[in-house]
Amino acid sequence: MASSVSAHSGHDHSSASNVKDLPRVVIQESDTVNPWTGLDLNNDPSNFQFAIITDNTTGGREGVLEDAFCKLNWLQPEFVMSVGDLIQGYTTDRKQLEYEWDEFEGFVEKLEMPFFYVAGNHDYTNPVMAEVWKERYGASYYSFVYHDVFCLVLNSNDEARPHAMTQEQVDWAVAEIEKHPDPRWTMVFIHTPLWDRNDPTGKWPQIEEALQGRDFTVFAGHHHRYVKHSRKGKEFFTLATTGGNSGLRGPRFGEFDHVVWVTMTDEGPILANLILEGIWDENVRDEEVRQVQSALIDDGSLALQPILFREGRFDRGQLAFRFTNDSDYPVDFEMQFKQLENVVIKGKRSGSWRLPPNEVLTLDFDVANASDDFSEGIAAEMQWKLAFDRDGEAIRFEDSESLSVVRELPIRTEADFLVDGDLKEWGSLSYRSPEVADWHYHRRWEGEKDSRFEFDVAEDGENLLVAVKVFDDSLALSEEDALWAQDSVGVLIDARPQRVRGSNKADRRPLFFNIAPGPNGDTRARGAGSYPEGSTYVARKTALGYALEISVPFAYLDEQGGGDWDGIRLNVTLNDKDLEKDAVARIFWKPSWNRDDAVPGAGSFYRVERE
């Protein structure tokens, strides 16, 4: 057996050892029958096992990664791979980066086998992060060969910005592939699944083209949701999490903490997903299951629509629950309502049904307010189960949906807005950040004296407009840091049909503006090139903080809504970074829509008829 490692820096290291043929079983056999099935043991010395850990970021949950490393020592793989996003990162604070890498290396040091680093966007996305990586680990892309298996490790952020590859790396990777023309197998490890997103650089197709004509498998992370892709007969795996942010709704949703156990054979790698709650094979969630899940659940077919009211106090309303089987399979559906103390629900509150393809289940309920203290919020919970049979394999989902009662807010009808960051034509703004803030990541918000915001929403007959005024005692603005890692505002605008925008599905991302005034008087916007055509935005510093305006044309809203738009759902987030602190406080007007305590439909606005 021989192994070698090569990096783009040009350094090669190699070692070799002998592997002796293992003896056959020594056992007394009978001439008739024996209490075993055979004696050809599965012990080919050229086969090997290794493990892969995946994302630990976006507020990594304490204890999960440590637990995974402990269990890897129990399992004893020959080595452990990663697919990046190993630290929270995303900062130019060298001290903070050193602290996070020291912490991570403390976990790695407990492993009883080699660990291979892969750079994720949280690890390697600005010049300071890249510099710290190079000082600690050297190459950010490299290759190695083990038992005639060629492993190619790539950096999907090597321009020190997310999801980008330099041509220099691509040329190196193609050369490495050509240098190993006939391996037993090729495995590629990369953080961002560039094949499953818009890749404006066109770099990934060059690498995929160079891999054609050989057996290969690709592993990635980043999306925090597992899915197996098949492309031109090859398998591409996007892994879930090993402690990273996740809805944790279970295997069929692709949301779970796991390590991947890979056994290399002559026929290719065999995968087992070792979930902390059990073991699943590589087909835990494939593209077809993802498509069915999206059609039946995530696109709003299964969501309980919020009961919206506009004036006064909520007294009573109607819930019309519609579940459409948009799959090609008969679906078994069960549900049971759990009524909360705030309301009284009249109607069929539990049952089970079998729905053929294209059939619609309709249930109607009367909902009445039963509490003097209840104004809006979660009114009831529906526990549900859904199952279908796919070629003898039972595919099951189960989750819960919240029934909410939400006040729908009017969109102001105004004219002659100038999107310039000067909010004088708005007058007083109608909405403000909560006094008790909902936040995640680091709890560093010290109340309204630290930072707060006001905002409003209007339309001028051609555009939807949003104005935000931020009051901040200490502005931290930087050209190098990611916008969400410094003082900035995020505005989420969802103009899809009410049945979709009223739900809280984390993987359905609406239009998102992340904007801040630049330190030099300009406006910085995250993902500016992806905003709808005709959108405008301006942010500028003020005496007490900063202000911003956003304009989105009706054409985009109509396209999202499938016709004349009738309303939106909106949320505003304030990212507050104080100069003397390492972390960012994230303050939401309404709880983040992908949190468990988020109220479905919260932040709904309706379009007022113009006279």
From TrEMBL:
Superkingdom of origin: Bacteria
Family matches, as SUPFAM superfamilies: CBD9-like, Metallo-dependent phosphatases
Entry's Gene Ontology BP terms: carbohydrate catabolic process
Recorded GO MF terms: carbohydrate binding; hydrolase activity, hydrolyzing O-glycosyl compounds
Calcineurin-like phosphoesterase domain sequence ranges: 50-226
Boundaries of every Carbohydrate-binding domain copy: 444-582
Location of region: Disordered: 1-21
Cited Pfam families: CBM9_1, Metallophos
Cited InterPro entries: Calcineurin-like_PHP, Carb-bd_dom_fam9, Metallo-depent_PP-like, STPP_CPPED1
PANTHER family: METALLOPHOSPHOESTERASE, CALCINEURIN SUPERFAMILY (PTHR43143), SERINE_THREONINE-PROTEIN PHOSPHATASE CPPED1 (PTHR43143:SF1)
Name by which UniProt lists this protein: Metallophosphoesterase
